[in-house]
Every structure is written in structure tokens, then in C-alpha cells.
Amino acid sequence: xxxxxxxxxxxxxxxxxxxxxxxxxxxxxxxxxxxxxxxxxxxxxxxxxxxxxxxxxxxxxxxxxxxxxxxxxxxxxxxxxxxxxxxxxxxxxxxxxxxxxxxxxxxxxxxxxxxxxxxxxxxxxxxxxxxxxxxxxxxxxxxxxxxxxxxxxxxxxxxxxxxxxxxxxxxxxxxxxxxxxxxxxxxxxxxxxxxxxxxxxxxxxxxxxxxxxxxxxxxxxxxxxxxxxxxxxxxxxxxxxxxxxxxxxxxxxxxxxxxxxxxxxxxxxxxxxxxxxxxxxxxxxxxxxxxxxxxxxxxxxx
Length: 302
Fold this sequence. Notes:
Blueprint: H1 5-10, E1 13-14, H2 20-25, H3 37-40, H4 42-55, E2 59-61, H5 69-74, H6 81-95, E3 102-107, H7 121-138, E4 142-148, H8 151-165, E5 169-173, E6 175-177, E7 183-184, H9 190-200, E8 204-209, H10 217-225, E9 231-235, E10 241-243, E11 246-248, H11 253-258, H12 260-265, E12 270-271, H13 279-301
Helix pairs in contact: 4-6, 4-13, 6-7, 7-8, 8-9, 9-10
């Protein structure tokens, strides 16, 4: 499918929720790298994609967040990045088959910091290009760069993904620092992030993860004020508590959805969830968006 950026800018669409936390809730062992489930537990991956589609998501991400060469080597995974990413895109495509949803290929940070030269720009370009190419080959409709905190890294990833795939690129930073939590862990303010990513060529710009949906409004306001792209918003369901080594998120779907109208009014165009959110959070969110659209239609007809 093809992204209509003008339509996205003028409407509100629903994205999916978290992946790693949800796969673990569905039986994926905690000691298994979630991205390798594309090869070892494909039925779990496809089933979750189907659940998100049924809940109302029209953007479904692939289970490939950390499936880059550096991360796989660090975890001692023998499978190639191409194999895991292609499988992730194919499974998401199977999960949304016939449902009209877009598959977005998820790429997270490399795990290396450019600012202290843990890797060169050339090395990172190659790593991001390798992952993006495999996602495109597996059938992704767009590339999603998510949970980045270093601006130079994500800008480089935008250019690499666009060069090798020609697909639309979504670039999403994670904000959790500063008085209003409008800076990334690396100190990037939201206004600077928006302007730089727009200049780098990102087609959709936004935020995800962070400190939770209750704290993300100032970020949304700052992003909207500093760029003209469709705005992607996927916050956490609050912050987790640890129970027997497992991250547990307490925010209910009802509480999560209660924050959504304000984010839409602030300019969010595509909204979903990140860590701690699941299909029920997305179902509540989608119902709210649908109700808002029905009210708008009634208002236009009067």
C-alpha cells in the first residue's frame, strides 16, 4: 500500500501498540531476544499482528526493533539480520492480510553512540541500510526509525533508509528528560529534533516510548510547532514496575485512552502505543478516534 502523506496530515489514524512486552505476555521466554521470535515463534508474531488489526490499528509495525547487526552480535544470535528482518516483515504482512493496514518496518537505535565514536558514520550507514533493505524485501510499506535519542544517528538512519529502499520513512525520537520531559536522553530538544529530521528528509516525524502518555503533551506541542509533516505519537502506558524480573505496566486501557483527545487537539495525526500497551489499549483508542470522526461528520452535515 502507499502512504498518502497529505491525507495523513489532515486526519487522525491509529497505530498499533507494543511488541516485546506483548510477546512475552503471550509466552515468549524472557531470555529469548524478542526479534528472534520471527524465526522461533512465528505464530505468536502473526497472531499479535492480527490482534492489532482487529483492534483497529491501520499501522502495524514489524517485530524487528533490535534486529541490527550490532545488537544480534552482542546477544550471540547466529541468524543474519536479513533473515530476521525479512521474516518480521512477512509475518506482519500475513497478520494484516486483507485488512487494509500498512506494514511499517521497525528499526531501533544501533546501540552505538556516534558522539563518542563507538562506530563510524560509514559503519552505521551500512548497518541501517542492511536492515531497511531486508524489511523492504520482506514487504514493508514504510520504514519506522523509533526510540532514538541521538539526533545525528537518526538523521543518518533516515538518509540510509531512503537511499536503499525509496520507501517513506517515519522518524521517532524518545523524550524523557528536562523540566517538561521535552529532551531526549542525549539532550536533544523536541523543536531541534523536528526541524533536523524534516531537513534530513523524514516523511513523518514523531515521538514514542518515553515517560508515558501522561507526560507527552509538551513534546507533541513542540513537535507540531516546528515541522509540517504528519505527526506520529506512540507513548508508553506509564512506567513499569518489576515483578519477578518482568516489567509490568499498570496503566489501564481506559486511563491510556483518556489522554488521547488532548494529544489529537495538539496535532497528533497517527497515534498508538509503545511499551506496556496491547490490543485492548488500541481498541479503546480506535473507538475514541472513530467516535470523534463520526461527530465531525455530523457537524459538517449540519
